[in-house]
Amino acid sequence: MGTPELAAHILDRLVAASGDNFRVVGVVTRPDQPRGRGQKPQMSEVAAIAHRHGIATLKPTKIRTPEFLAQLKAFEPDLLVVAAYGRILPNDVLAVPRIMPINVHASLLPRHRGASPIEGAILAGDRETGVTIMRVVEQMDAGAMLHIRKIPIADDETAGSLKRKLAELGAEALLEALDKFRTGQAIETPQDESLATYTKIISKADAAIDWLQPAVNIERMTRAYDPWPVARTSSEGNDLMIYRARVVVSEHDAPAGTVIAVAPNPIVRCGEGALELLEVQAPGRKRMRAGDWARGRRLLIGQKLGA
Question: Angle at the Cα of 278 (from 200 to 305), degrees rounded to 5?
Fold first, then answer.
């Protein structure tokens, strides 16, 4: 059960490794949705992988119905594997698999439960993250842990680059967990609830920069929200998306959001420290070096960014 690219990569790896030890008997994903200029209905990334391999696929609009439950039971699954499906599963669905329902969660639980664990790890300044294979329960990401794999978070890591790494790591961790089930070595370890943290669904509004925040927090935003929704501010009433930036030491006494240097790159005063803009995108333009943008806009010291 899954929807986006991360889940699709895991499904692809799962199908490639199937054989005598296990096989994928069915897929559940979201309904086709309008995309692109023509707004024609297109299948999810997971549905595309399932279609390529000829795997029976369910695309329920609602999962709390007798019809969907009957369709799921018809697969007679031993395990239900969930990866970024995007819905809380009710207990009658969780009770369908003979062994248990398991989830591939892209964080080191109990840290960063919820909808955006990859972005959450970058925003928090974590030095490492990973994947947790866990039992699915009706409470969000609170089930017992079965298998964990860790990787470091690079200083220049973006949500996009980290998702690609964790998709592959998640596939490897899942295959290792399946082998534990097959050999009877799967052990459940309860999560420490006192260490639990939570993330939420990210919206475009979350990417609006508040220059009163410390520079280190804003720099993390530029990486956590790349490729979407992209950290953004405004310059002379126009939207300005910031893709890359660097924290710099500054004792300049100016209000937050003030441009305190323009060459070779613009530097903006923050609530604490300052931020050197490295790569930006203005409306109707391609991504470019921030210094080139500043020269083209004739940006001046003392101008303010943001509301």
Answer: 70
Enumerate residues 6+ apart whose C-beta is below 8 A from 155. Answer: none
- For 285, the enclosing helix (H) or strand (E) is none
Q: Three-class SS string for 166-231?
A: HHHHHHHHHHHHHHHHHCCCCCCECCCHHHCCEECCCCHHHHECCCCCEHHHHHHHHHHCCCCCCC
- Return per-residue pLDDT of the chain as tens, 307 residues: 999 999 999 999 999 999 999 999 999 999 999 887 788 899 999 999 999 999 999 999 999 999 999 999 999 999 999 999 989 999 999 999 999 999 999 999 999 999 999 999 999 999 999 999 999 999 999 999 999 999 999 999 999 999 999 999 999 999 999 999 999 999 999 999 999 999 999 999 999 999 999 999 999 999 999 999 999 999 999 999 999 999 999 888 899 999 999 999 999 999 999 999 999 999 999 999 999 999 999 999 999 999 8
User: What would you measure as the largest C-alpha separation in the chain, in angstroms?
Assistant: 68
Residues facing residue 280 across a β-bridge: 242, 288
- Residue found by looking up tokens 């459940």 in the block: 188
Cis peptide bond prior to 117, omega within 30° of 0: no
Burial of 203 (0-12, 13-18, 19+ CB in 10 A): exposed
pTM of full prediction above 0.90: yes
